[in-house]
Amino acid sequence: KDAAGFATGVFTVKGMTCSACVNTVEKKLKACDGVAGAVVSLLAAEARVQFDSTKLQPQDVADLIKRIGYESEVVHEDDGSASVQLSVTGGAQGLEQFLLVCTGVTTVSDLVPSSDLSTVSVTVHYNRKQTSRRGLVSALSLSGRTATVVSLGSGPDDLSKSVSTGAASWLVYRRLFFTSLLFTLPVIA
Known about the structure:
Blueprint: E1 6-12, H1 19-30, E2 35-41, E3 46-52, H2 58-68, E4 74-78, E5 81-89, H3 95-101, E6 105-113, E7 119-127, H4 133-142, E8 146-151, H5 159-188
Antiparallel strand pairs: 1-3, 1-4, 2-3, 5-7, 5-8, 6-7
Helix pairs in contact: 1-2
């Protein structure tokens, strides 16, 4: 959720067959009280909806999509939380306190110094709506430390999730491409 009480959720939208279906879902969602925005993807069969969390819950948005005429389920609510594991050089003294006062940082954990005490491994939990991995690395640089990203951690932007989802999406797109090609070749010939 952001400061204004808006949340973003991802929902499945099953049964769409064309761009007119996408436009219908987007327009009808945007016309609903409590919905600030909606982006619908035909190929991914999902909708990313920004909604007022004081008026609607994620399941309410899925129900709105069902009332429009499509099957829908909540995939996840994007609350903006993420984490990153950093390797920091330049001293461990005061590192945790420094990170905790950075905008968007919620917690710091797993602070582990290396055997020669030259670097520190730390996991930083933060809100992506307020800061980013790049912002954290820049803040540490301004404090006289050098930070590198070791692991992307968790959150909707987690690399391992996007790689596995991307592989599945690629297969779907490939199948759709060859299916459309099958119907296009007789027209060309």
